[in-house]
Specification:
The complex is a heterotrimer of chains A (297), B (277) and C (335). Helices cover 32% and strands 9% of the residues of chain A. By secondary structure, chain A is an alpha/beta fold. Chain A has two domains: 144 residues, no CATH class; 126 residues, no CATH class. In chain A, helix 3 links the parallel strand 3 and strand 4. Chain C has one domain. Chain C is globular, with a radius of gyration of 21 Å. Classes of the chains: A alpha/beta (297), B alpha/beta (277), C alpha+beta (335). The interface between B and C is large, with 48 and 57 residues.
Chain lengths: 297, 277, 335
């Protein structure tokens, strides 16, 4: 697969079809993958593909990265789950389908965190999203690398995140509140969750708006709660459960839980899952007379 | 405990509308002892608090030769300045300072002085102007080149009139092209260009400039072209600050901390600095 | 003085001895699946098997958020009160030699003409007990910045793992007093010390060259900065876990009637960090912000404060979501 990927990247750069290939390369010690930006066809050799390729590179397609945008039309190496984010970005008008060349990678799962890698991909080091993945064969791509896989996700989603949601849902409200207050109490307000999220592309985040100060910037319980809840709300109907925010969080706040919970709520209320179809707009930005209004009490 | 972040309370004694969204406060310390003992040097700055909203950094726009009060001038742009703009005469605000270095006015005795300012860059220069005018006999020719985007944006209009009328100051006022009014008698053009035309003589002269960063860069070049010595051209950098005392880490231009080693620099010092402002 | 040892089974007694006198005992403990420095109460909370804590212990000297003043808005005036620093007697146990070396720079900065007593009072009341590393990973690079698991810079007491004991070395006067105050817990004798983990020195890094290149202003607009740091997402996680990063913000919070002024951690990696009111931003691009951080570590701190800006703990590498490795930039600037 790696070879096909490199050949394709090289070809795309040589023909001038794209100016930069956003992909994965090795770090200095070759122990971890890291995003690379290939502009020289000769450097396409440094692209790698393996289960350590955890980053969602769709991030670099957003308007947050002006210097990358300035390089010219990009090709992006993307797993099915990353492509979901690209789709959301397109439905939200961030760029057009033809503005980016998607090199879709057939995927059999990645590690939850790179430091868990011991040389073999075992189910216990894979994140919940991989166990339930329905896009191991990239669903939107200009070129697909890898043999088609015939993995079918379980009918009822399984994995730690779903188990934990079930457990929390069964508890009284006060307990759930206490759980989240405790989890958010660790927040250091570094905003890594926001920065790593390709769907957090606002030029001016609400935390930076201080007239009035909507969210207190201090890392105290009030400020932490308002930040984390606001961010969760801003991702409703958009988040694809790529898991980057939880991975980036330096204090291990289980953000996947809150995001997956909201995904469930949206599925229930609107029968919508984000990131599959570039033609369908997310429910929060469209009005439909058929909308169930059962949340208005 | 000595709390370096604790401001002193000051009362707003008077408010002057300078230009659209630009306002000056005349401030008096609440503590009578401090009112009598407070000293600063021209060019130093302070942090002004609107309680509940935060602190903002401005220079002290009044001259140390005028005792008993300090003046600040600010443009209403953000949270703190927006809050300050809502205060009225008699209200309380906070002040920490004075911080930073100063213009070495005492070293300029017998010299000609050229002041060049743009827009809201006049307040720090104003402190020097009054410092110099209050001991006029110590200095040679005094030239002031001041410009703003439009006529309305010129600050200290009363004082500009006074400087124009007093006879011992050459005042050149300018507005950017398109910013003039039908009865505008000053120049039209950007400050560096107008400065070049005015061509103050460089011999035995010092220059003091402040304005938007881009203006400062061009003015410094123009002054050097006019033959000014790098060591005799002064400017004041106004970077974003939170602490004012060398701790918070954001005002540095390369390895130079503006709050501690500035804000006043000569062109020679600026030249040695990183291109980071 | 005879050789001292601390039996590991006596750790509980040490904690009791410290907390019994009203002090706080901070040690690496497991919380939310990671080892972090936290205030603990008993020996069984102390993590045994760790490389180093995810956070640095700086938050016990320089908290993430702290109130410096309080105010109440009256009808005609404002009542404002400075807040006294809360500086309990603190023992930081199990810090690594690398991170302890950050204290000199912190102190230099916080006492640079104006003394920030919120920092100094806490630091003065803190005893740092380091434990030489017997484990490490590929992010450790203390030896590359001229430190090692044997370094004692910044430590008050230096321990070495020795089977069921620690060997004890008093480094500072504060450390000596600490041992005297808790004399009953420490024993006398010798123990065979476990082998230390020595990270391999990155041979392509030449600190003198890095420093020389940073001093030469020609590098400033070198496109290599943008190239090396293109992947940086500006999250600032590196600055939050870094033991030497100490930039902060000052904010007011509260209602129209009362409030407080807080000193909060901030990060030079944020685009609003240096943003002027006019909209001008001296560090508009992420690579400029990254350059500032790198220069702060390898140029400003060593030059201005004659102290280490980087101690090689590797936290920034481990925590970086895009694995931007500071040692790779060091290698580039050693060329």
């Amino acid at each position: 697969m790696e070879n096909t990927l490199r050949q394709k990247a090289k070809g795309l750069l040589e023909s001038g079809e794209v100016k930069v290939v956003i992909g994965y390369g090795w770090n200095r010690a070759k122990t971890r993958t890291t995003p690379v930006f290939i502009t020289d066809p000769a450097e396409a050799e440094s692209l790698v593909w393996n289960p350590l390729c955890v980053n969602n590179l769709s991030l670099y397609l957003t308007r947050k990265f002006k210097e990358i945008k300035a390089l010219g039309r990009p090709a992006v190496v993307a797993k099915g789950c990353d492509i979901k984010n690209i789709v959301v970005l397109m439905t939200e008008g961030q760029f057009k389908r033809e503005d980016v060349f998607i090199i879709g990678m057939t995927c059999s799962g990645t590690v939850y965190r790179q430091e868990l890698w011991k040389g073999e991909l075992t189910p216990n080091i894979m994140p919940t999203k991989c166990h339930n993945c329905d896009v191991r064969n990239p669903h939107v791509a200009d070129f697909v690398v890898g043999e088609k896989t015939n993995f079918t996700p379980p009918e009822v989603p399984t994995g730690m995140v779903f188990d934990k949601i079930k457990e929390l849902d069964s508890k009284p409200q006060a307990d759930r509140w206490a759980f989240w207050v405790k989890e958010f109490s660790r927040c250091v307000k570094c905003y890594a969750c926001r920065q790593v999220c390709s769907l957090c592309y606002c030029e001016r985040c609400i935390t930076e708006k201080n007239m009035p100060q909507w969210i207190e910037t201090s890392a105290h319980p009030r400020g932490n709660l308002s930040w984390n809840l606001t961010r969760a709300m801003h991702l409703v109907g958009r988040c694809t459960f790529c898991g980057e925010c939880e991975r980036a969080c330096p204090v291990n706040i289980p953000l996947n839980l809150i995001n997956q919970k909201m995904i469930g709520v949206v599925k229930e209320a609107f029968d919508f899952k984000s990131g599959y179809d570039e033609k369908t707009h997310p429910p929060m930005i469209v009005f439909s007379p058929d909308d169930k209004e059962n949340f208005i009490k | 405990m000595n709390n370096i972040y604790l401001p002193n309370l000051v009362t707003i004694e008077d408010i002057y509308e300078e230009a659209p969204d630009v306002r000056s406060f005349r401030l008096v310390f609440k503590d009578p002892k401090l009112r009598d003992t407070f000293e600063f040097k021209t060019g130093q700055f302070g942090l002004y608090s609107a309680f509940g909203l935060g602190e903002s950094t401005f220079c002290i726009a009044s001259s140390p030769t005028r005792k008993g009060y300090i003046q600040c001038t600010f443009r209403k742009t953000g949270r703190v300045t927006g809050g300050l703009a809502q205060l009225s005469i008699g209200d309380t605000m906070g002040f920490r300072g004075p911080y930073g270095n100063h213009f070495p006015v005492d070293d300029w005795k017998g010299k000609n002085i050229v002041f060049i300012a743009g827009g809201i860059g006049l307040p720090p220069v104003r402190s020097v102007i009054w410092n110099v005018l209050d001991r006029r006999e110590d200095f040679g020719n005094i030239t002031i080149v001041y410009g703003a985007k439009t006529v309305a944006d010129l600050v200290y209009k009363e004082e500009l009139r006074h400087w124009e009328e007093r006879g011992d100051v050459t005042l050149v006022q300018t507005v950017d092209p398109g910013g003039q009014t039908p009865d505008w008698k000053g120049s039209v053009g950007f400050v560096p260009t107008v400065l070049k035309e005015a061509a103050p003589k460089a011999e035995n002269s010092v220059a003091v400039t402040c304005g938007p960063p881009i203006m400062i860069k061009f003015v410094l070049n123009t002054l050097l072209e006019l033959g000014f010595d790098e060591g005799s051209v002064y400017t004041t950098l106004e970077n974003r600050m939170k602490c004012g005392v060398g701790k918070c880490g954001r005002c540095n231009v390369g390895d130079v901390y503006v709050c501690k080693e500035g804000p006043v620099y000569t062109a020679a010092e600026i030249k040695k600095m990183y291109n980071d402002f | 003085m005879a050789d001292k040892i601390l039996k590991k089974e006596k750790l509980g007694a040490l904690i009791e001895s410290v907390t019994g006198k009203g002090g706080r005992f901070v040690a690496p403990t497991t919380d939310a699946h990671q080892v972090v420095f936290k205030k603990i109460k008993s020996a069984d909370e102390v993590a045994g098997d760790y490389i180093l804590a995810r956070n640095s212990f700086k938050e016990f000297l320089f908290p993430q958020t702290e109130v410096v003043a309080e105010f109440t808005m009256g009808k005609d005036s404002v009542d404002m009160r400075g807040v006294e620093v809360h500086a309990p007697q603190t023992v930081v146990f199990g810090a690594r030699p690398c991170e302890a070396a950050s204290l000199a720079g912190m102190r230099a900065l916080f006492t640079w003409d104006f003394v920030d007593e919120f920092y100094t009072k806490r630091e003065e009341n803190t005893v740092v007990v380091t434990v030489g590393c017997t484990k490490g990973d590929d992010a450790c690079f203390c030896t590359t910045v001229n430190l090692s698991p044997e370094s004692t810079e910044g430590a008050d007491v230096y321990l070495r793992e020795a089977g069921d004991s620690y060997t004890v070395k008093v480094i500072s006067e504060k450390g000596k007093k600490f041992l005297e105050a808790h004399a009953a817990v420490f024993g006398e004798g010798k123990a065979k010390e476990d082998a230390l983990f020595m990270p391999e020195k990155i041979k392509e890094v030449d600190l003198a060259k890095v420093s020389a290149r940073l001093k030469d202003k020609g590098h400033y607009d070198d496109p290599v900065w943008a190239k090396l740091t293109r992947k940086c997402i500006g999250c600032g996680a590196c600055t939050f876990v870094c033991p030497t990063c100490r930039c902060f913000d000052m904010v007011d919070e509260g209602t129209a009637f009362e409030g407080e002024r807080r000193k909060n951690w901030d990060s030079c990696q944020y685009d609003t960090f240096t943003l002027h009111a006019s909209g001008h931003n001296p560090r508009e691009h992420q690579h400029q912000r990254w350059r500032n951080r790198f220069m702060c570590k390898f140029h400003f701190y060593p030059e201005k404060f004659s102290s280490k800006g980087c101690v090689g703990c590797g936290r920034c590498i481990r925590v970086c979501p895009v694995r931007l490795d500071i040692t790779e930039v060091m290698v580039e600037f050693s060329k």
